Amino acid sequence: MARCSQLVLTIALVAAGCAAPPPPSVQRVAAHSAVADPGGLLVVVDVCVNYSPLGTDDYFVVANARQGASALEVAAQPFLDAADLRTRTTLIPFVCGALHDPANAPKRVADEVDGSVSEQAQPLWVAPAVAKDADYVDALQTLATHVFRRSVAAYDKDKPSAPGAGTDTAADDERARRAAALVAQRSGRSSLLYLGVTGHSLSSGQATTLGAVRFVAGVAISVAIGPVFTAGGAQYGVIFVPGGPADKRQMAAGVYDLKQGQLLRSRVVGGGGDPMKPEVIAERNGLNLLLRDLLLSSVP
Amino acid sequence: MSAAHATCSGAARVWALALLALSLIGCAGITPKRMVPEAMAGSERKVAQRVRVMPVTGARDTFFGGAAFPTKEQFHEALVATVEKSGLFAGVSPSAGDLDLTVSVLSIDQTGFLPLTVRLVANYKFTARDGALIWSETYDSSHSANDFAGASRTVNANEGAVRENFKAFVQGARERFRP
User: Fold this and answer.
1) How much is the pLDDT for A158?
2) A159 lies in a domain?
């Protein structure tokens, strides 16, 4: 049996190695026509970071989200410049702008880690430059929510949708269109690039506890499986420690045509790393791949 | 005798495993020379301007044990050699010229295993001394390799993707600066 599987593996490797690789390809690409419009691009950066301390409930942290948003803006600049998208305005209008739940229930929030926690509906912080224009903030939030939800829904299309989700798509589209008209009028731009990051960070105490729990679970699984190899009277087992990265982040991004009132493209990428650190939020390689897929199109 | 035999047999096994590991890993590295396109046929006449090739920006950082990508220095060296080899301009230098050539690596990534494919998107800009933009193009190239040794596969796919991109750039520049 073992010899048979070795033979199959060898044949598979040889077959894979002998198969001709696809021929090299090259094409000229340029910014998508909607974002290359002379009206220019409005870049909206929206970061939302959740923190899990040991012993109390999670809360969102404003200071780290703002630092992450600034770092993300800086990291995106070289790509946008090189792609000749120089007619643009970048806004960091809020923290946690895209709504997490339709009812916008109050969330636990602190200005900084270990700061005093209060309850507040989203957005959890509004930039002073736009705070006075409540309609503009509301329109930006509506578009942020629309792009974020649609991106994630497209990404999760194979998963069963949550009860009540996606039941009012037409109304949602119409709300987004109205918001787009207002954003176009206020910003003077013809398209919008939304870069939204949500992250979850564990405190060191939480991370240690989680690590210990995973190790104990791994030992329990090992004991349940029993030894996998016996030689010279000694028994050998393996320990499989379950679980992925403790800290997580997800970036959902999309390009919205403000003139046509239409979401053109969207992408979602996920990753590990502590989202409380700005350099993790603004991880350049992942961001560049996302911007490539969103902003560039082949030129015939 | 049996102890010596066991020691020899153990050592032979270690050597065999080491050789197998070496054959799988390979020893090659990314080389700028192999990133220069081989054939770049074009007009014999040169553009009477000299080009300064600016430092390349946006190349990915690599780390020990991670995926290999060309460094910005390797990109730059290969680009200078490519522009020189193209014979399109009166002179090419990293320090002085009538035109500045700026290259930004917008993205580079690896996908697959056998074959392994590297995809590179790079933007090329020619600017005049006063900073005015003369020409800007972006090319998206990909190259796959299916060498058995993992390192050779990575190296060949990376070098091939850069080569294809440079080839397209030279062709585009030749059309723009047609004498």
Assistant:
1) 61
2) yes
Smallest CA–CA separation between B166 and chain A, in Å?
A: 10
Chain B interface includes A25 (CB < 8 A):
yes
A4 located within any domain: no
Per-residue HEC secondary structure of B90-108 comes to EEEECCCCCEEEEEEEEEE
Model confidence at A166: pLDDT above 60: no
Calpha distance B93→A172 (Å, rounded): 56
Give how far Cα A72 sits from Cα of A47, A79, A145, A155, B18, Å: 9, 12, 19, 22, 44
Q: How many CB pairs under 8 A join A and B?
A: 88
Match 């990575």 to its residue by tokens: B154
Q: Tally the domains of chain A.
A: 1
Asked if residue B179 lies in contact with residue B43, where contact means CB atoms within 8 angstroms, the answer is yes
Question: Are the C-beta atoms of A91 and A66 separated by less than 8 Å?
Answer: no
Q: Is the ipTM of this complex over 0.85?
A: no
> What six digits make up the tokens of A43?
């870049």
pLDDT tens-digit series, residues B145-154:
988 888 889 9
Please tell me which residue, B9 or B140, carries the higher pLDDT value.
Answer: B140
Per residue in A130-159, pLDDT tens?
A: 999 999 999 999 999 999 999 988 877 666
For residue B115, is the peptide bond before it cis, meaning its omega torsion is within 30 degrees of 0?
yes
Fold adopted by B30-176: Rossmann fold (3.40.50)
**Interface contact flag, B139 A21, Cβ < 8 Å:** no
Option in B107, B123, B142 nearest A289 (CB):
B107
The predicted model gives B132-146 an average pLDDT of 95
